[in-house]
Amino acid sequence: MGVLNVTPDSFSDGGQLYRAGRADLDAILHRADAMVAAGASLLDIGGESTRPGAEPVTEAEELARVVPVVEALAGRVDAMLSVDSSTPAVMCAAADAGAHLINDVRALRRRGALEAAAASGLPVCLMHMQGSPETMQADPRYVDVVTDVEGFLHERVAACRAAGIDAGSILLDPGFGFGKTVAHNLALLAALPRLGALGHPLLVGLSRKSLIAKLLGRSVEERLPASLALAVLAAERGASIIRAHDVAETADALAMVAALAEAGAA
Ligand code: 7PM
User: Fold this and answer.
1) 180 is catalytic
2) Which of 209, 218, 223, 237 is catalytic?
3) Is 209 a catalytic residue?
4) Which of 86, 128, 224, 266 is 20 to 30 A distant from 107 in Cα terms?
């Protein structure tokens, strides 16, 4: 899954897909084509910055950022389109515009989100986050992070199923960096097989995340080697989808995991 941020303040593409305060659709189409050529089979389109401390975005602004991008890419790129949103109106409009997956960092907890996702008929990714983006990194605490995240995801799966979403249309994500210390992130990575035992494919986003800075002191531009290691470690522990900024490099790293798995199975 390649990350396609359409926010003016996105932390890792620095608003490069923005010009004069609007999404630059030519630049986005170009970036999307490059990611697909590099091996992405999913593109994650996000119009809300969930960066710790980021300003909340209005529904109208999020719609204006995301929907034209989905419209521009749907049917034009050879990849599935994921919409990174917690906003019911954005889910509905993105589904109408041709999106294939709803990726919600709030796991459909906003008012109306469960109903909107169910009505869209699209598969959903439910991510764990403790707190909200403005404050989540202040002082995250858990009784036992793995048990807490597992319990949360289990509860959200039940809520989805009660809302009419098929079990087979649900992906789960431990939400690395979303209300977690380095120790919490590492415990969750080690316990990925336990989360996989919930019976849903796992989506994992570790690319360029701040645990790399905290462990190694790397700036955002220096985080590729550690991001690749984390992608491989996650894939080895059963992650089905890796969310990544550096698609070509990540695809090569994951191809090696797949090659070894095939050789081992043969
Ligand atoms: C600052 C910090 C800016 C973190 C952006 C981010 C995930 C996601 C994001 C994830 C799923 C980023 C994140 N992370 N959706 N959206 N899983 N499902 O690294 O880990 O792009 S935003």
Assistant:
1) no
2) 209
3) yes
4) 224
Ligand 1 contact via 2 beta carbon (within 6 Å): no
Structural domains of the chain, with CATH: 2-265 (3.20.20.20)
110 Cβ neighbours under 8 A, 6+ residues apart: 86, 87, 88
Rounded Cα gap, residues 211 and 204, in angstroms: 14
SS3 (DSSP) at 224: helix
In whole angstroms, what is the distance from residue 22 CA to residue 152 CA?
36
Question: How far away, in angstroms, is 208 Cα from ligand 1 center?
Answer: 10
Q: How far apart are CA 40 and CA 244, in angstroms?
A: 9
Tokens of 201: 């494919």
Ligand 1: nearest atom to the Cα of 176: 20
Q: Would you give per-residue pLDDT tens digits along the chain (266 residues)?
A: 999 988 876 555 656 777 656 778 999 999 999 999 999 999 999 988 776 667 788 999 999 999 999 999 999 999 999 999 999 999 999 999 999 999 999 999 999 999 999 999 999 999 999 998 888 988 999 999 999 999 999 999 999 999 999 999 999 999 999 999 999 999 999 999 999 999 999 999 999 999 999 999 999 999 999 999 999 999 999 999 999 999 999 999 999 999 999 998 87
